[in-house]
Design goal:
The structure is a single chain. By secondary structure, the protein is α+β, with helices and mostly antiparallel strands. Helix content is 13%, strand content 29%. The radius of gyration is 17 Å and the shape is elongated.
Length: 84
């Protein structure tokens, strides 16, 4: 919310700008963005209360109960291969 009480939203890229096309195997590889959509939250003593959150973390989360922002993502998540 801004100072007038209006809702404010930001757009974040879902994928990185670069992707790979394998014409022989007819595969497209897209990489999920590492953009930060929420910075670290610190308490008054400088301790981390909440780690920063990145777009890729929405898909690479083992505990989906914590994911509140993806409306239609769980079926897609189950089809993704996990790397890392």
């Amino acid at each position: 919310m801004d100072e007038k009480g209006n809702s404010v939203s930001d757009d974040y890229p879902l994928f990185t700008e670069k992707f790979r096309i394998d014409h022989i195997n007819q595969e497209l590889t897209a990489h999920i963005s590492e953009a930060v959509y929420q910075n670290e939250i610190l308490d008054e003593a400088g301790n981390i209360v909440q780690n920063k959150k990145r777009v890729v973390d929405l898909f690479n989360n083992d505990d989906w109960s914590e994911t509140k922002y993806l409306k239609f993502g769980r079926e897609l998540h189950n089809q993704l291969k996990k790397y890392g």
